[in-house]
Specification:
Strand order of the largest sheet: 5-7-6-8-9-10-11-12
Largest sheet: 8 strands, mixed
Distance between the termini: 41 Å
Order of helices and strands: EEEEEEEHEHEHHHEHEHE
Mean pLDDT: 81
Radius of gyration: 20 Å
Number of strands: 12
Structural class: alpha/beta
Strand content: 15-25%
Low-confidence stretches: 1-24, 295-325, 331-340
Shape: globular
């Protein structure tokens, strides 16, 4: 199934019509700015209770060679008739099937090559970014792809989710009554004040958020071989749900750890640091895409050292942050990172 996006609907003789300039897209992801000549497709997975709107501001912070594809999970606007997932492995399975079919050009409603006139199916590398619940889904998606023998992402970028899972006591309890559930969600930063004070908005948001936190609690950590996929991690310095020390454990779960960058703030640090986060992610994408051959294991020893160079698209190194070895604290001073 496809949907139309682009300019707003127009009303003609009492009915809504779609402007002819609009483009069609698969229903499982949304591209705010299609980029047919993109060098990489970046799939974005939202935090619990979030949707594609969290990725709307991203496009202007990403270079033209990155096409952002915001994943539309069931239960959200545009897919509100579908029940949201409550099990992380079921959600990962659905994502793996959708992605594999899209890459193969066989998904219903999608032309061969993913877009009419576009590159051959599966020819464009892809990456996955997830924030909180989205990071959990990105990780389990990658595991599912590897089990299926489907080519995994060129980069797995994980923000604000520990590999062993978040402590249940620090997250909203799906079994709580609405007022307590909403209060916990708001204290975490996941419920803006204007939404918390809007009964209609809460009525639409809380059921999806409950399902999402049920999904998060369904995750059971298991000991699995390190991923043969480059992994980069991001976190907030004051995030109690995903403390920096726990985020650093991702190092042991990949053969190619690109590092951990910490941003001042809590669980929702991307809201305050989107330009810096996008620059760091762009740098990591450039690093893996520019490699002459298959990724080789690196950064698994946990050693520290100063990394120097320039962020892709920012040769002067003016994007904010400082990267030190495997762990970097992003501040208000210029930073740069190297390419292997």
């Amino acid at each position: 199934m496809k949907e139309t996006i682009g300019r707003p609907l127009i009303r003609v003789a009492g009915r809504e019509e779609i402007r002819s300039e609009m483009v069609t897209q698969p229903s499982w992801y949304l591209t705010f700015e299609p980029r047919p000549a993109a060098r990489v497709h970046l799939y974005g997975l939202p935090f619990a209770g979030g949707g594609v709107s969290m990725f709307r501001p991203w496009t202007r912070h990403l270079p033209p060679w990155v096409e952002l594809r915001a994943v539309r999970l069931p239960g959200r606007p545009g897919r509100h008739r579908q029940a949201p997932f409550t099990d992380c492995e079921e959600a990962a399975r659905w994502l793996a099937d959708a992605l594999a079919e899209t890459r193969a050009g066989t998904r219903a409603g999608e032309p061969a090559g993913e877009r009419a006139g576009g590159p051959a199916a599966g020819a464009v590398p892809y990456a996955v970014f997830g924030h909180s619940m989205g990071a959990l889904l990105g990780y389990r998606l990658t595991r599912a792809l590897l089990r299926d023998g489907t080519p995994p992402p060129s980069l797995l970028a994980l923000a604000a989710w520990p590999v062993r899972g978040a402590t249940a006591a620090l997250t909203p309890d799906p079994a709580d009554p609405d007022d307590r559930f909403a209060a916990t969600l708001r204290s975490l930063g996941g419920l803006p004040p204007e939404m918390a004070d809007d009964p209609e908005a809460l009525a639409l948001t809380l059921p999806v958020a409950r399902a999402d936190f049920t999904l998060c609690r369904s995750y059971a950590y298991r000991d699995e071989p390190p991923l043969p996929v480059p992994v980069t991690a991001f976190g907030g310095t004051a995030d109690a749900v995903a403390p920096p020390g726990e985020l650093a454990e991702w190092r042991a779960h990949t053969r190619d750890f690109l590092g951990l960058r910490l941003f001042e703030g809590g669980h929702f640090f991307p809201r305050e640091h989107l330009p810096e986060l996008a620059a760091a992610l762009t740098a990591d994408l450039s690093r893996v895409l520019d490699r002459p051959g298959p990724a080789s294991p690196r950064n698994t020893s946990g050693t520290f050292g100063t990394v120097s160079g320039a962020v892709a698209g920012d040769p002067a190194g003016t994007a904010a942050g400082t990267v030190t070895g495997d762990v970097g604290v992003v501040t208000s001073v210029p930073f740069a990172t190297s390419t292997p």
